[in-house]
Amino acid sequence: MANRDALRAFQSRLASRLQAARTSDVSAAWLAVEAGEGKYLFPLGHAGEIFPWTPPEPVPYTAPWFLGVANLRGGLYGVVQLATFATGEAPVAATPSVEGMRAQSRLVALNELLEVNCALLIDRLVGLRGVEAFVDSQAPATDAPPWLGHAYIDAAGEQWQEINLQALSQQTRFLSIGA
């Protein structure tokens, strides 16, 4: 019970900080998340509401990265496993031990202005980041997908990949969930 209370408090603080960042001159520009082995940055203007892990209802004959649909606060959202979509690697099979590790997992909905009812499964929320949190950046490779933004390096030497959720939401591969 204490873990749930702490989790709710963290989510409340993060939601408050996200709202404050959108309405003030706070320097935070991204929501930092981890998915699989990757560290990603979502522009705050593209990210929507953050939901606790809700197992989606599977949809047959879909791509391996499309986990199914979930009812999130009364809305029907497609759930995409970000790590699988971004890397192209096979998804981890849903076993009881994997489901048990979902305690820190979240579903980050795309902003409703993008007009795509989709939520990305991430393994962990890290928090808000601004450009001052990074010491270097690299432009995406010329052959990189158009939804990949700059890669940023933090003081610890960790690489964070920016994902343009607006560009992602318009990609044919992302919109074509059929297997």
TrEMBL record:
An example Gene Ontology biological process: signal transduction
Protein name listed in UniProt: Chemotaxis protein CheW
Organism of provenance: Variovorax guangxiensis
Domain CheW-like, residue spans: 27-174
InterPro entries documented for this protein: CheW-like_dom_sf, CheW-lke_dom
Pfam families: CheW
